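hey so i finaly got around to running the thing on OsmC family protein from Sediminicola luteus. pasting the sequence first so u can double check i didnt mess up the copy paste, my clipboard has been acting weird all day
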Amino acid sequence: MTNHISTKWLGNMAFESTNPSGLNLLIDAGPENGGEGKGYRPKALMLSALAGCSGLDIASMIKKMKLEVDEFHMETIANLTDEDPKFYDKVTLEYHFHGSNLSEHKLQRAIDLSIEKYCGVMEMFRKFAELEIKPIFHHK
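ok and heres what it spat out for the 3d tokens, dont ask me to read them lol
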């Protein structure tokens, strides 16, 4: 299977990129790099892709396992190297679950399945970054 994305220069430092969902996204540099800051930054998008990919896996398993979770969010903290080409060499992914009846064991299983088996973006990140996974349970 092949993904094909078209990315068109809009002038200055802005680009518009298609997505298979049919929703296009804008990419732009910040003012410090000659852009207007009206779009997503490419490297930051990679972190959203990582969290989104794993998050979809976990949301699906929360549904399948009928787990009680009031709120679920992820924090992705990445270290960028100093030298060009700058890339993420260390990435911490925190999974925050909130609820009064959290099954820590099952949620941990969902995380493990996502990071070891299902999340393709995670597999790509493994090729260039050291990953730290932190489940955090907030019991109400």
